[in-house]
Specification:
Elements: H1 10-19, H2 21-28, H3 32-37, E1 46-51, H4 52-59, H5 70-82, H6 95-102, E2 109-117, E3 120-127, H7 135-142, E4 145-147, E5 150-152, H8 155-162, E6 171-175, E7 180-184, H9 187-197, H10 210-217, E8 222-227, H11 230-234, H12 242-255, E9 263-268, E10 274-279, H13 283-297, E11 312-320, E12 323-330, H14 336-340
Antiparallel strand pairs: 1-2, 1-8, 2-3, 3-7, 4-5, 5-6, 6-7, 8-9, 9-10, 10-12, 11-12
């Protein structure tokens, strides 16, 4: 857990009052992960986060640049994917296209945050070592048209550039001062995300329970987080076959029953340890759910196959306020995060 430090200095408070929301956000976002969450609108339902610095360090991609031989880049991305370092990345498979056409790629990213909402998706990239001033002129030369800060390319243009439909390349926003590039399939959602990233509007980080779960996640190398009750729908056991659903119901009853989730995060760290944190409606609900959730996390995995014991062991568990926090140790080199973050997942049952 992170220690919260509040410093009351008159001079600093004056500066904060002048600078406004952006400064408050910088001071309030304690980890890189929280900073990434703070760029996504409050309407975001699911976030997939990747620390590309950790991925490059762990998979031998650190010396690579956009001019490196493609075979070396492909080998790095293959290792990163096999080791489950970049689960859910929207740009890993487009590295060559982005480098050659757009002037940036995953090789330049410090981190990536893919947000999904009811109105679309947006992929936020924090870039390092990129000439940000050159990106918008490049988009213009490619054939994108600007409407405010949003650059839009037709479906035909994007397909010709990427060799595929690539919907997230339809709308692009460049924020030079923040060293951010936003890619989206929705002009409205990416415009909203750009405003939030610049300090205007409410981010998902400040939604109910999101900050608490992000704090429990620490500073992950990769994470997937669900806001509110969306985890109940996204990881629902109802998506499993009827036999698995029946087995799951019996296991939940045997564990003692569970309450609906009000948020969920699965966070993986550089040493491969994981944090699984679940949010509930109140502290009493969290305390009541602790044992049943641990039992489920140590048992069979209907809908996914095998057992959760085949994937990880529960190193510790605790109820902290409204959150149940499990510390997990993955087994061998199994891709646990990418496996668990796609439903149906019994321990996330609602």
């Amino acid at each position: 857990m992170h220690t919260r430090v509040v410093v009351y200095v008159a001079g600093l408070l004056v500066v904060v009052a002048v600078v406004g929301a952006v400064t408050w956000r910088v001071l309030g976002a304690r980890s890189t992960y929280e900073q990434a969450l703070d760029t996504l609108p409050g309407s975001t339902l699911r976030v997939a986060y990747i620390d590309w610095n950790v991925a490059r360090e762990a998979a031998g991609g650190k010396p690579l640049t956009d001019t490196s031989p493609q075979r070396r880049v492909a080998a790095f991305l293959g290792r990163a994917t096999t080791r489950d370092l970049v689960p859910g990345s929207a740009v890993a498979g487009s590295t060559q296209v982005l480098s050659r056409r757009y002037g940036f790629s995953a090789l330049d990213a410090e981190w990536e945050a893919l947000g999904t909402s009811a109105s679309g998706s947006v992929d936020v990239l924090k870039l390092d070592g990129v000439d940000m001033a050159a990106l918008e002129p490049r988009l213009r030369r490619l054939g994108y048209v600007a409407a405010g800060r949003v650059w839009t390319g037709s479906s035909a243009l994007v397909t010709s550039l990427a060799g595929t439909s690539a919907p997230l390349l339809r709308h692009v926003v460049v924020l030079p001062d923040e060293h951010l590039v936003l890619l989206s399939d929705s002009a409205g959602y990416v415009s909203q995300a750009a405003s939030v990233a610049r300090g205007s509007g409410s981010s998902v980080l400040h939604g109910a329970g999101v900050g608490s779960l992000a704090d429990a996640a620490g500073d992950p190398s990769a994470a997937v987080q669900w806001a509110g009750a969306y985890a109940c729908r996204d990881l629902a056991m109802s998506a499993a076959d009827p036999r698995a659903v029946q087995v799951g119901r019996a296991l939940v009853a045997r564990a003692g029953g569970v309450s609906p989730l009000a948020g969920l995060v699965m966070a993986q760290h550089a040493d491969r340890s994981m944090v699984l944190a679940m949010r509930f409606s109140g502290s009493s609900e969290a305390s009541r759910n602790l044992r049943p959730r641990v039992r489920l996390a140590r048992g069979p995995a209907p809908g996914q196959g095998g057992s959760f014991r085949d994937r990880f062991r529960v190193a510790s568990s605790d109820a902290e306020g409204r959150d149940v926090v499990l510390q997990l140790q993955p087994v061998a080199r199994r891709p646990v995060l990418s496996d668990l973050s796609s439903g149906p997942v019994l321990f996330a049952a609602c």
